[in-house]
Amino acid sequence: MLKGCATAPAKTILLGEHFVVYGEPAIVTAIDRKAKVTAQESPGTSIHITSDLGCGTFEGADFKTSDSCRKVRRILEPIRISTQSVLDYLKLKRGLDVNVESVIPVGVGLGSSSAISVATVAAVGRLFDGRLSTSDIFSLALDAEKFVHGNPSGIDQQVSAFGGILLYRKGGTSTRLQCPVELPLVIGNTGESRTTGRLVESVRQRHERLPNIMNQLIKVAGGLVEEGAAALKKGDLQRFAELMDINHGLLVSAGVSTEALDRLAHAAKAAGALGAKLTGAGGGGCIVAMSEPGEQSKVAEGIKRAGGEPIIVEKADTGVQSWLEK
Amino acid sequence: MLKGCATAPAKTILLGEHFVVYGEPAIVTAIDRKAKVTAQESPGTSIHITSDLGCGTFEGADFKTSDSCRKVRRILEPIRISTQSVLDYLKLKRGLDVNVESVIPVGVGLGSSSAISVATVAAVGRLFDGRLSTSDIFSLALDAEKFVHGNPSGIDQQVSAFGGILLYRKGGTSTRLQCPVELPLVIGNTGESRTTGRLVESVRQRHERLPNIMNQLIKVAGGLVEEGAAALKKGDLQRFAELMDINHGLLVSAGVSTEALDRLAHAAKAAGALGAKLTGAGGGGCIVAMSEPGEQSKVAEGIKRAGGEPIIVEKADTGVQSWLEK
User: Which residues of chain A lie closer than 8 angstroms to B245, CB-CB?
Assistant: First the structure.
């Protein structure tokens, strides 16, 4: 039986997270860790989802699972909604088996959820020959995630769909940044999970208490992103990494770093990284370090010795990809 | 035989270090850890110095010591010069026994050297009934330290001589800040020594590479100090401590924090501190945490568990004090 297949990459924010909420730009890159989704028709109208994180069957919004874990529904719901959104868009009513395989760590700011949504939309679209454009895939995945996650910025879905490095501005147009060299990145996962919403809220409260100070910090972040975009275009990794270091300090000032994030950032640099910062919401999750070319494994070793889980990655120039399999 | 005795307090910088080099103000407080110096006449014209850190005899600039340690001269030289500066000021030529007892950790940014110089000047002045004013003591101690340390800002000597909390501006006048409450501070010593000059130079280099970004950061630091002065006047420790947290992030951005400093700052806050930051030059040395009133021992415990040496202190309203003993 024909299968629609798709992969979509994870992401890491290189500069500007949090301050993006206040209108400053951010730089985010797709990375070569992917979610893969396959979709094939099944009898009836139910959507059956299998994944490493659990499986279950949706009949409309009704959910059945053999798993005892209640969390499974929360994990599978966005996949169901992404699937359904494509069926609705194509005006189809079908039963589907959807399988998700992902090597993206979950809940640590690497855009796992968005990569899965994007790949799901693309796989289902490809199965029914929907000829969805990348923009369509982005929009459908974003709509599906809005349903589940409230009001996501769209940055994750965008970079996963289009790939590459994006200069992103909330509510504005994103531009793709060309970088003439590889980005030898090393992610360091603290293993601490966190809730993005709570961290965004804690920064908002600090902003409310100290608006002048925080507005000045936000401007510094905007300046960092501008300088960073220029450095990337020149392939000046050393300068870009110094900006990452400074950005980490701003995030410390915003109150979102933790002992583990600081420890991994120092460990990465002690092991030879040019610079390092927390990436994403903070409060746990990951750091991202810029290595010198060819030195990623040393940096990874340093992160590991400091208690983190290192993940060696490169930027991914390609976003979502889909194909048919027999 | 009559002894001139004096004590002078250590200091800790609460807000604004490093950025003070670029013209922004800083807030520094004297703390209730003191150096004590006693001076008495001895036959001849040599100056014999005894201290916990070593002892030796100066005949003019010639130095003799029974200690094998070469470092001793470097430690005792400022004491000799402080002593000599008072003798010169009073136009006296005498032999002296000078004894130094200090409970201020050395080389970690708490102003140990300045407190000793200030107390030395005051003790020698008192011995000869020099009726030195506090301003005289400050000036003589600063001149003596200039001879040894190149071009010190004078902040350490000033706060040690006058006591209290100072709003300090490089090359300008300092004003004393009144704070209606105690400051329940806890110092956390990493035990890592560092060279202030090297750290000031590293910030200068970052400033040279990224002047726009660094100038913006410097302005944020200035804003923090203004807000901090207002919070102190109201006795709003919570707000002041939040500004300390933000200031720590700026110092991370300036590149002067270390894994140990970040670790102790997090540990202090996890143990209940309202806020914490590195204090002084960074690159090692100490953090300073603002505790809630009555909770200093809990914060100290947290710092200890994280591998630091905790020192519970309060602001010292009194600066240098001198008296005669028989």
Answer: 253, 255
